[in-house]
Amino acid sequence: MPVPNYGVLKARPVDRRLGAGQNPHYQIRAVAGNDDYRLAINVKSRQSPSELLFIVDEHFQHPVTEILTTLPGDGFHPLEHTPASGALDFIRGNLFDPMAMVPLPHDVPGPDNDLNEKFDGIIQRALSDETAVIYAFGSSWRPDNRPDPYFGFRPNRGIHEIHMNQGNDPEGDFADANGPYNDGGIIVHFPEQQQWVAVFTAFQSQAWHTNDQTGEPLEGSAPGQPGTDPRPPFPTDGDLPTTDVPDGLVRIVGALVNTIESPEKETVTLINRSTAEIDLSGWALADKNKEKTPLSGKLPAGGVFVAPVRSPMALSNKGGLITLLDADGRKIHGVSYTREQARHVGWTITF
Fold first, then answer.
1. Contact call for residues 29 and 96 (beta carbons, < 8 A)
2. Does any domain span residue 226?
3. Same domain assignment for residues 191 and 116
4. Same domain, yes or no, for 245 and 102?
5. Beta-bridge partner residues of 186
């Protein structure tokens, strides 16, 4: 079942504390109207390995930002566990390239080399910019009249579970948090610079292929850093099979979304990064609504393939998602694009 009271807090950050102790969390005090909130962000895992996976995108572009700008005022906004609500999903939402994540300890000597400092650099910038707005995705806890243990305000309320919330061992301590469109994260908007900065974390104990209904790991999907699932060795020459192709071996590198023709003739460009030809039989492209275009044929070693998009799949000019699935329906790669990126008629968006 998904985390309780899931949603996003829109607020102004006003203070912070570095994570320390046995169960360290980077703490942010944020204000929405007359209400104070604490954002408790894990910076160390209680399960081995203790280092969290981390990624920061300092120029975040994704359709979710358009949803965030339309939220009716500051405060906590409950979100349904659906893509249309603006809920985050690290796997299905194509928010970032999971293989670009790196494991970081929470506290080591030296500048800008641990998770505390990565969060602090972004939040310190937001604290010094009176126009900055923070969007914290996660689970809200109910307010009580005790003083907040870090910042002292009353009532004590805030957001936690600000990390990936799926792919947990279904027999483990965190199985109850599993669910699609249920992930946490931090997105900071700097309006004067027209810049969005996103920060996402995950535990190395979580798997990166999960069930669309339950968020539990799919059979054969091992925990660990994305792209490191143990799979049968693939050949360095000849044909690769249609299944057991490692994540990211085939990538989406371009999409013609807003075409000159009417009706539009949209295309998606794939590249094969390997030295072996890949059989695309049974593979498919999918849009944000999970409508698909079947693929077939061979993708040459080191070559590209321009796939025409066929109905019912459609690439909206208002922004969207494109996901590449293998013959087992597992995600191999995914990208997103915004309304702004799609506004140039006849131009191919590159990823």
1. no
2. no
3. yes
4. no
5. 136, 199
Tokens of 171: 């027999």
In a domain, 152, yes or no: yes
Point out which residues pair with 267 in neighbouring strands: 256, 308
Cβ neighbors of 79 (< 8 A, separation 6 or more) are 6, 7, 8, 85, 86, 87, 137
Strand pairing report for 195-202 and 239-240: unpaired
136 and 36 together in one domain: yes
| Ordered alpha helix ranges (H), the chain | 64-69, 115-127
Label the pairing between strands 304-308 and 75-78: unpaired
**Is 309 within a domain?**
yes
245 and 196 co-located in one domain: no
Number of structural domains (the chain) is: 2
Same domain for 111 and 39? yes
Is residue 79 located within the same domain as residue 173? yes
pLDDT, tens digit only, all 351 positions of the chain: 799 999 999 999 999 999 999 999 999 999 999 999 999 999 999 888 899 999 999 999 999 999 999 999 999 999 999 999 999 999 999 999 998 999 999 988 888 889 999 999 999 999 999 999 999 999 999 899 999 999 999 999 999 999 999 999 999 999 999 999 999 999 999 999 999 999 999 999 999 999 999 999 998 887 876 765 444 445 555 555 555 677 888 999 999 999 999 889 999 999 999 888 999 999 999 999 999 999 999 999 999 999 999 999 999 999 999 999 999 999 999 999 999 999 999 999 999
Collapsed DSSP state (helix, strand, coil) of residue 193: helix
Of the candidates 242, 333, 244, 332, the one whose C-alpha atom is nearest the C-alpha of residue 296 is 242
Residue found under tokens 């044929």: 297
Q: Are residues 158 and 101 in the same domain?
A: yes
CB 313 within 8 A of CB 293: yes
Q: Are 262 and 157 found together in one domain? A: no
d(Cα 239, Cα 213) in Å, to the nearest integer?
33
Q: What is the domain-level CATH number for residue 265?
A: 2.60.40.1260
Question: Domain span at residue 52?
Answer: 6-202
Interacting residues of 146 by C-beta distance below 8 A, sequence separation 6+: 154, 155, 156
